From TrEMBL:
UniProt xrefs under SMART domains: HDc
Annotated ranges, domain HD-GYP: 34-230
Keyword Transport: no
GO molecular function ontology, one term from the record: hydrolase activity
Transmembrane segments: none
Alphabetical UniProt keywords: Hydrolase
Enzyme Commission number: 3.1.4.-
PROSITE patterns according to UniProt: HD_GYP
Protein name: HD-GYP domain-containing protein
Species annotation: Falsiroseomonas tokyonensis
Region Disordered, residue ranges: 1-20
Length: 231
């Protein structure tokens, strides 16, 4: 599969969301990203991811939604919302290159499959770099599985050395993964249970500041997990 800035695949015509005016996912994505200057290439890539594996695209929009909630709570600490939104929406774009049968598997993955999944941050970063996305968006795709104290992937570096946007994407990604359905390796948690896990892992897995922003932005007026996962 080859990709370019306009979302063309393998030299074909631009691919947009099917039936966009009637498609709730497309409407949600466009509404969320409407203020960004990179809306067209971002939507094109999200559309490709949705056709490849719908659950991964849904997850990406949920992560972007959580990130903008975090930004509204602490804009002075999270900076420009545009790269935050785009970085969240495209953090898993490397999953385009993982077979959908693996992404949707309800069994434990074998070592070869697991290694393929663990390559998606680097693959996604390569795609976004090639398409000219800003370095901070590229970094969000590459580094969102790194851990605060080190030992994550792909590089195992301490995420304390990484851009604050990447650290915010990491905690939002993990929180959404905890509460959304369809994860073969765990039952979904409720919103409060997921926030408690984020709190327990601040300073080890997660940037303490990013964890605190997420907890404060979602925990002050708790939202049921199904509200965050709607759509």
């Amino acid at each position: 599969m080859t990709l370019d800035w306009t979302g063309r695949m393998d030299g074909g015509s631009p691919r947009s969301f099917p039936d966009e005016l009637r498609d709730p996912f497309a409407l949600d994505a466009r509404s969320l990203l409407t203020s960004t200057t990179q809306i067209d290439p971002t939507l094109a890539l999200l559309g490709q991811l949705r056709r490849h594996h719908g659950a991964s695209a849904d997850h990406s929009i949920r992560v972007a939604r959580v990130l903008i909630t975090m930004w509204r709570h602490a804009p002075e600490r999270l900076g420009d919302p545009e790269p935050l939104l785009v970085g969240g929406a495209l953090h898993d774009i490397g999953k385009l290159f993982i077979p959908a049968s693996i992404l949707g598997s309800d069994r434990k993955l074998d070592p070869t499959e697991l290694e393929l999944v663990r390559r998606h941050p680097e693959t996604g970063a390569q795609v976004l770099r090639r398409l000219g996305f800003p370095p901070v968006v590229v970094a969000a795709a590459r580094d969102h599985h790194e851990r605060w104290e080190g030992g994550g992937y792909p590089s195992g570096v301490r995420s304390s050395s990484l851009h604050p946007l990447t650290r915010a994407v990491a905690v939002a990604d993990a929180f959404v993964a905890m509460i959304e359905p369809g994860r073969a390796y765990r039952n979904p948690r409720d919103g409060q249970g997921a926030l408690a896990e984020v709190a327990a892992c601040r300073g080890t897995q997660f940037d303490p500041e990013a964890a605190d922003i997420l907890i404060a932005s979602l925990g002050s007026k708790p939202r049921p997990a199904e509200d965050i996962c709607a759509g």
